[in-house]
Amino acid sequence: MKLLHLGNKKINKMLKELEVHNLIYRNHQGLGKPNKIYVYDLLKADNSNWLPKQFKHRKGRTNEKEIL
User: Fold this and answer.
1) What is the domain range of residue 1?
2) CB 3.0-4.6 Å disulfide test: which of 8, 16, 25, 27 passes with 36?
3) Domains in the chain: how many in total?
């Protein structure tokens, strides 16, 4: 937290937001041990929203090659 210059509340808020958006998974170990945080595969395109949107060039062509 000192490295990022952020407080406990801000870090916890950011972790909760990442968890809500299914970008991380926190495994609670208990017995005073720290939680393990796993990062999901960010490059996996489960949702079409993650793909870049097509745009038209000035000549009317789309960027299909750039998407593939």
Assistant:
1) 1-43
2) 27
3) 1
